[in-house]
Amino acid sequence: MEYNFTEIEKKWQKNWATNKTFKASNDGSKPKYYVLDMFPYPSGAGLHVGHPLGYIASDIVSRYKRHKGFNVLHPMGYDSFGLPAEQYAIQTGQHPAITTEQNIARYREQLDKIGFSFDWDREVRTSDPEYYKWTQWIFIQLFNSWYNPRTNKAEAIETLMHIFDTEGFKGLTHDILTGEIEKELTAFSPNDWKNFPEKKRSEILMNFRIAYLGEAYVNWCPALGTVLANDEVKDGVSERGGYPVERKLMKQWSMRITAYSQRLLDGLDKIDWTDSLKEAQRYWIGRSEGSSLRFSLIPGPSPREKGDRFSWQTANAEIYTLLKQFARENRQPQTEAEDALWQSVRNKNLGVKFRRQHAI
């Protein structure tokens, strides 16, 4: 029997749309399951092969879970705000509201023809004021918050101001209020804080806000008049338009994610991800305690220090022999940079003379 896909698929797609077959209800009697795809940017070219490549896989999961009795929320939306829409408008000479609407209509037609089980009642458009008003609201909440390590959570910035009012700030080495956040801040008393001019207070608080204005090196594209992410730059030019990109120190709004590094790491133990994905996240978070090393300049043999600890000296032949072997074992495996440094040391190309290896 011949499969007349034109008629059969059109019939059932119309049936799904009319009966809202894939609508997620607020019925609490079923277990919930959420399947979220990456929202595409609706360009004039329409879908490319990468879109269905990912959407088909997630749609299979969505349909499977519905058959298993889950209340599945599987929405779709459009990342229709920002640089791509602006650049397209410049190239075509049309208002971005017009081209964006046309492009979304084209995407919707293509997505429907493929037969995805999206709940279109939950459609999201990032260019819709009803959507981006909430992203602006979220930013304001972040700007008016700081991360308090004493309570291990974000709090209103007023709580930090109260701490400064009553305790002051003891300086970086004595008063680590927020991990690695307070940079170039000197100690001040409660009275100092109360007498600071408003501008100075604002500058101090900026060192603690979760959303803060600071300087950072960015990928600046003069032709586009904007900053680009690393993945938007290819071989020194912008991926969109091929314009030159330069590294530039500029004031940028940033997020103080480093304050949450330990909570992010702890949270990995509570989610159902593969070990390889969790390990990739740990490397991405990159939290490090660091080390504190002490070196004595007193000639060996090593003098006894406080308690039962000793300061090892490579001037002591016996200890040097042990350290030399330890250093040799720890030189492998080497990165390219480590190997280059070691070759310079052993070949005496550093312009200085080493009397003996000092293993660290």
Question: How does the SSE layout of this entry go?
Answer:
Elements: H1 5-19, E1 32-34, H2 50-67, E2 71-73, E3 77-78, H3 83-92, H4 96-114, E4 124-125, H5 129-143, E5 145-148, E6 153-156, H6 157-166, H7 190-195, H8 198-205, E7 211-221, E8 226-228, E9 233-234, E10 237-238, E11 246-255, H9 261-268, H10 275-285, H11 317-330, H12 336-346
Parallel strand pairs: 1-2, 3-4
Antiparallel strand pairs: 5-6, 7-8, 7-11, 9-10
Helix pairs in contact: 9-10
Question: How would you characterize this protein structure?
Answer:
The chain is an alpha/beta fold and 360 residues long. The chain folds into 5 domains: 8-127, Rossmann fold (3-Layer(aba) Sandwich), CATH 3.40.50; 140-210, no CATH class; 213-255, no CATH class; 256-286; 297-351 and 356-360, no CATH class. It is 40% helix and 13% strand. The protein contains 12 helices and 11 strands. α9 (261-268) runs antiparallel to α10. The longest helix is centred in the N-terminal third of the chain and has 19 residues, at 96-114. The radius of gyration is 29 Å and the shape is extended. The model is unreliable at 301-311 (pLDDT under 50).
